[in-house]
Every structure is written in C-alpha cells, then in structure tokens.
Amino acid sequence: MGPTSLMFIQPVSVIERMELWSKGAHRALVPMDSQMENVSPVGVELVESASSHRMFTQMDVLRFMKEHSADRELQSVPSRSVHQLAAINHDVYAITDRTKLIDAIKCLKTAMLNAVPIVTSSDSVDQQDHNHLVHGRGRKLIGTFFATDLRGCYVVTLKSWLGMSARAFTEEVGTNPLYSPNNNAAATWKRELVTCQAESPLSEVIEKAVGKHVHRVWAVDQDGLLVGLVSLTDVIRVIGLSLVSD
User: Fold this and answer.
1) What's the rounded Cα separation, in Å, for the pair 126 and 99?
2) Which residues does residue 119 pair with via DSSP β-bridges, in sequence order?
3) 0.70 exceeded by the pTM?
4) Coil, strand or helix: which one is 7?
5) In degrees, to the nearest 5, what angle opens at C-alpha 160 toward C-alphas 154 and 163?
6) Model confidence over 23-53: pLDDT tens digits?
7) What is the DSSP string of 74-140?
8) Residues 217 and 196 sit within 8 Å (Cβ to Cβ)
C-alpha cells in the first residue's frame, strides 16, 4: 500500500484498527457522528451515513499511544527496546554526501520515498555510486534529505541549485531568505538528526517522532553508524503484535 493511500474506516477503537496502520496505510477518513441505516434482521445491506469525516493519520495513532502510555493495556509495550520488539528495519537505503541534488530528487521519485538518510561517502567507491541509492547500513549518518525541503523553493532558484550536493542544499534550506518564514522555521529543526539506538525504549522513539513530527527515526550505533530505521508503520506494527500476543 503506497504512502498516498487513502482508506475509509468504521468508527471503531484505535487498537481495533491497528492492523490497518501496520500494513502501511498512512491516512484514513473516519466518519464522525455516523449511524447505520437499512439494517435488516440478519444484518444485511448495512449502509453507513455520516454528516462529516475527519482525516486520521499514523501520527494521530502515535499521539494517542503517547497520551495513553500509562494505560494498563499499553504500558508494557513502550518500555521495551526497539531491538526487543524487532522494530528496526535494517534494509535502509541512503544517498552520500556527494550526491547531487538533481540525483537525490530522482532517487526519492524512483523509490517513492519521502525522505532519505545522507551518509558519508568512501573514497574507494566509484563516482557512479553517488548518482543512485546505496546501502546505508554501516555508514556514518550525517543528515537527512526530505522531499518537503523542496517546498517553498522558487523554480528558478531550484534550477540553479540542482548541481550542488543534496547535503549542501539541506543546509541552504535553513538559512536562505528565499524560503517563507514558516518553511524556514520548519527546516531549521529538521536539520537536527532524529535518531535512536537499538536499546532505546519504544516510548523514546514515539516521543521523538511526535515531538519532531517526523515519520521515521534513524537507528544508529554508538559511533553514529547507520543501523536501520524505525518508521511509524514499524512502531504501530510492533505495538499491534504485542497487544495481540499479550
């Protein structure tokens, strides 16, 4: 299911719909004040009507988990490490610090990604490796290139920057006056790397994801080498599995 998938769900509890979010659905329309009409004695021809709908996202699920972490049904899960819960996706791809902006944009588009980690390059690799995604595991994490970094950038200005490195561009985002104040403010805090380690409790990852409003937290080792990533989908998946097993 792609990141732009839109689902319609019945007004049931968040926990009951955990499976939907764990399969990669990023958002859903939830009917507000809904009611069932045309209900036959055997439950056939159920038609749901609602005066309005609300967009419900994966981030809403994590906010719910954060606010209800003390609930008896949930409190045993957030205290476990992301390693224990198998929440880390080790199959992580990256661009290097030498990848040009034009190539980074192509990488996001081809792989249908919204963000990609930036890792240090090796002098031994071929220049061609900087033109496409590389396996990021075991490389030094130095930044993140977000698709939203391109938002608010004038086309003429963007064209003049396509030849610079994506890393240099991410640094430009937070300082260039051509960006609107709102986008500039958002870019400033996005420059901070949002990371965790294998032994980090899930509650810490949820806190960082919600607090920084990011959809993935990079997992690194003690030397700052990229280990993998923990996405919102991963977090919701392991919570759902833990609740079922418990």
Assistant:
1) 12
2) 96, 141
3) yes
4) strand
5) 130
6) 666 666 666 655 544 444 444 444 444 567 7
7) TTTTTTSBTTTTT--B---EEEETT-BHHHHHHHHHHHT-SEEEEE---TTS-GGGGGS-EE-TTSB
8) yes
pLDDT tens across 120-170, in order?
A: 987 665 565 688 999 999 999 999 999 988 887 888 888 999 999 999 998
The Cα–Cα gap between 160 and 169 comes to: 11
Q: Among all chains, which residue has been given the structure tokens 């979010």?
A: 21
Cα distances from 53 to residues 60, 61, 64, 81, 108, in angstroms, run: 15, 17, 19, 36, 31
pLDDT tens-digit map of 81-130: 999 999 999 999 999 999 999 999 999 999 999 999 999 987 665 565 68
Q: Which candidate, 206, 241, 202, places its Cα nearest to that of 80?
A: 202
Helix (H) or strand (E) holding 37, with range, is strand 35-37
